[in-house]
Specification:
Blueprint lengths: L5 H12 L6 H7 L7 H13 L3 E6 L2 E6 L3 H15 L3 H11 L2 H11 L1
Antiparallel strand pairs: 1-2
Family: Belongs to the BlaI transcriptional regulatory family.
Protein name: Transcriptional repressor, CopY family
GO molecular function, one term: DNA binding
């Protein structure tokens, strides 16, 4: 799973929160507080497309971008990658479980059955 820079994460958050595909201008407007140029947003979207995190479709003159996977799928993949990098997967899981609040541990127990 490719790592994301801070601006790439911000763009992905906009795309994940959107109800459908977004143009670069719509992403730029959603990130208005950052005062980004359209070319900057297009560059980031292009990087995300090369990392296969977004798809681009053409609609007339505009391109629309949407995430390939949900935020939850992305986070799950990052977690799998982190576990794969650990020499002792069991120890890493134990540390993780020890670091989360009791209510989240209970939720995880419920998910596991």
């Amino acid at each position: 799973m490719p790592s994301l820079g801070e601006l790439e994460r911000a763009v992905m958050e906009v795309l994940w929160a959107a109800s459908g595909p977004q143009t670069a201008r719509e992403v730029q407007e959603a990130l208005a507080e950052r005062d980004l140029a359209t070319t900057t947003v297009l560059t980031v979207l292009g990087r995300l497309e090369r990392k296969q995190l977004v798809t681009r479709t053409r609609d007339g003159r505009a391109h629309h971008y949407q995430p390939v996977a949900s935020r939850e799928d992305h986070v799950a993949e990052l977690m799998r990658d982190a576990l794969d990098a650990a020499p002792d997967r069991g120890a890493a899981l134990a540390r993780f479980l020890g670091s989360i609040p009791p209510d989240e541990r209970a939720a995880l127990r419920d998910l596991l059955g």
